[in-house]
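Thread: "does anyone have the structure for this chain?"

Original post by V.I.:
We have the sequence but no experimental structure in hand. Need at least a predicted one for the grant figures.
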Amino acid sequence: MDQRPPFDTFGDSNVGDTFGSAAPIGDSFGQATGLEPAHGQGLFAPEDIAGPPVLWAGIAGAAALIGLALALLGSSAFGIAVAGWVIAGPVAIGLLAVYTAFDTKQQTKPFYSQPAWTAYCYWVTLAVALAGVIVGALRIAYWAGTR
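Reply from O.Q.:
Generated one for you, tokens below.
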């Protein structure tokens, strides 16, 4: 009597389990090729997925907040108002430009995934930076008008 497991036409030893077989994936002759992903993994590892450079977005957001705070505090000191304007304006917006450049580079990779919150983070950072620029400019104008 033959004790070997039954084989179908293509050499699959799991004849009864059509779709959910736990057997290793192989070529058409039932031989494991070694090219299959490990159990529980997809075709590529999670580290292969590129994403936006959130570090640069965070640095730009921090600069915008610091610039706005300095601009708000600069009502009596001209230097603080100018520092707030510079940090909220050229520095924070320049850091957003660096973020955009790195993000564009990341988007050219084969697998790119952008979380939805990063777009909101970008626009909030830009709005805070613009508020810092406006407040700083108004503080500087007020200082100049009272002298």
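V.I.: this helps a lot. The longest helix spans residues 116-146.
O.Q.: and The chain has three helices and no strands.
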